[in-house]
């Protein structure tokens, strides 16, 4: 389970306490505060704090007082204009702080986004829990034969059982030795900062991750994409739900222009114009490489 009963009780206590404020609040996000949403087998995502809402974006764009215009359509239209024309600064006026529990190998992918403030659980001072990510059988897949970064068909039968057994046994054995090395029973005990190196990359860690909306949407555009690794994509998908409730106008524009939209090179755009005119365009006369042409065809 992602949470112990004590942890859930603490969250329930936090959610039962309310405080008056003059700051702008987003009703959609208020309902999510502190709640832990399960991800993978032991992970979760929960909102610790946030700042701003859709109004904060339009207010910053106009450098105005209050909530912007009285016409909601004008505010939504402005947000769509800002998203469409890649005006990023107004979106930086909103921030989100998350508490995330995730496998170490996912954290190492995640930390590549160097535009957030991060504070991770320290295994120098504390002892990590005996919790490891073990994939569900349907997510055990062979290496893709066409993509060096992707997966192919799912493993099955005895091979799948063997891989799962290795993952469980190796993780448990490593943790057993980790515990033995730091034990204080009739021995000095190895320093925790050294003992942790014996733990596998599927052990769980936790961190606080604070990011502005502009950089958060960039993270989601890459990690909620169908081509992203499953284990990080499920976290991004859960965050998408939170953002949709927090800043609905901004998220809808993001879905339209980033997730659902496409960017064409000048060469590809020229090919589209030629196609509209009725010209037969092939890879050979397109000016594109085979890879570019394959992606262009998939896009169309």
Structural features:
two-stranded antiparallel sheet; five-stranded antiparallel beta sheet; alpha+beta; Gyrase A, domain 2; 300 residues; 7 strands
Secondary structure elements and their pairing?
Layout: H1 5-15, H2 27-30, E1 36-39, E2 43-51, H3 54-62, H4 72-84, E3 95-103, H5 104-110, E4 117-120, E5 141-143, E6 151-154, H6 157-182, H7 192-195, E7 204-212, H8 213-223, H9 230-246, H10 248-259, H11 266-276, H12 283-286, H13 290-299
Antiparallel strand pairs: 1-2, 2-3, 3-7, 4-7, 5-6
Helix pairs in contact: 3-4, 4-10, 9-10
Keywords: FAD, Flavoprotein, Methyltransferase, NADP, Nucleotide biosynthesis, Transferase
Protein name: Flavin-dependent thymidylate synthase
Function: Catalyzes the reductive methylation of 2'-deoxyuridine-5'-monophosphate (dUMP) to 2'-deoxythymidine-5'-monophosphate (dTMP) while utilizing 5,10-methylenetetrahydrofolate (mTHF) as the methyl donor, and NADPH and FADH(2) as the reductant.
What does this structure look like?
This protein has 300 residues and is an alpha+beta fold. The protein has 3 domains: 5-133 and 202-259, Gyrase A, domain 2 (2-Layer Sandwich), CATH 3.30.1360; 134-201; 266-299, no CATH class. It contains 13 helices and 7 strands. The strands form 2 sheets. It has a 5-stranded antiparallel β-sheet. Strands 5-6 form a two-stranded antiparallel ribbon. Strand 1 (36-39) and strand 2 (43-51) form a beta hairpin. Helix 3 packs across helix 4 (72-84), helix 4 packs parallel to helix 10 (248-259) and helix 9 (230-246) crosses helix 10 (248-259). The chain is flat, with a radius of gyration of 24 Å. 24% of the residues are buried. It holds the Pfam family Thy1. It comes from Thalassococcus halodurans.
